[in-house]
Specification:
Blueprint (H helix, E strand, L loop, with lengths): L5 H14 L4 H8 L3 H8 L7 H11 L17 H11 L3 H22 L4
Helix pairs in contact: 2-3
């Protein structure tokens, strides 16, 4: 079972923000929420919503490995880690295209399984 460590997530985000030369208010503004909310995330008091987490990791160009999540953990395959990292570092326009491609490929695979194509 995978355990979410709010403190670790906050620490990684804080270190990456500082490394990027951003102040809390700057990252919060870029991410679209309050500095107070970001402060609570960085201090491990709040777990960011998935939407906010994805925005933050995209801005800071973080990867799952930065949070201690890697393919050595047998719960997540290397392929899934690679795909998740691509999603986390891709802009929203490409994400929409990837979703559409994935959904269409899924339909094709299901049709093939049912021998309809």
């Amino acid at each position: 079972m995978f355990c979410i460590d709010k403190k670790n997530i906050g620490t990684v985000i804080k270190q990456a923000r500082k490394k990027a030369g951003l102040k809390q208010y700057e990252l919060a503004e870029l991410a679209g929420f309050s500095e107070k909310h970001l402060c609570r995330i960085e201090n491990g008091k709040y777990l960011p919503k998935l939407e906010h987490f994805l925005i933050i990791v995209s801005i800071l160009k973080l990867r799952l490995e930065d949070f201690g999540i890697n393919a050595i953990n047998k719960e997540i395959s290397e392929n899934k880690v690679e795909l998740i990292n691509k999603i986390l570092t891709t802009d929203d326009k490409l994400i929409k295209i990837y979703i559409e491609v994935y959904e269409n490929m899924d339909k094709i695979i299901n049709l093939a399984k049912n021998k309809l194509i």
